[in-house]
Amino acid sequence: MSQKAFLAAFDAAVVGSFKGAGLADAALYFAPAAPQGAGVACDVMIDRGVQGWGDDPMPVAADSITVRFQRAQVVPEMGGILDVDGDRYRVGELLNDDGSMIRRAVSRV
């Protein structure tokens, strides 16, 4: 088994376990050019938090939402839409892609 195949299998097992524990969710992803109703089922992990910028006494802070996708299920594109747990997000900037998991910034629609 290659490292890439091992990582994909490991991530699938982790996300499956997290989903069972309520730490990951089933979702539908719609590519930017996909017709309405042509969503791809996938499992995602959503990270919600606050990100700060600057070293001065008054740094800028803003809400930050990122989503981790399993590459084996879907390769999200900028501008795509994600429906998960009653919320809808627009897919933004690529933050990380290790060949198995893809992490992208998202914003609420």
Task: Fill in the keyword field for this structure.
109 residues, alpha+beta, six-stranded antiparallel barrel, 6 strands
Structure, explained:
The protein is α+β, with helices and mostly antiparallel strands and about 110 residues long. Helices cover about 15% and strands about 50% of the residues. The chain has one helix spanning about 5-20, and strands spanning about 25-30, 40-55, 60-70, 80-85, 85-95, 100-109. Strands 1-2-3-6-5-4 form a six-stranded antiparallel beta barrel. The mean pLDDT is about 90.
Provide a concise account of the structure shown:
The chain is an alpha+beta fold and 109 residues long.
Helix fraction, binned, reads 10-25%
Which stretches are poorly predicted, pLDDT < 50 over at least 5 residues?
Answer: none
Residue-averaged pLDDT: 91
Order of helices and strands: HEEEEEE
List the helices and strands and how they pair.
Layout: H1 3-20, E1 25-30, E2 40-53, E3 60-70, E4 81-84, E5 87-97, E6 101-108
Antiparallel strand pairs: 1-2, 1-4, 2-3, 3-6, 4-5, 5-6
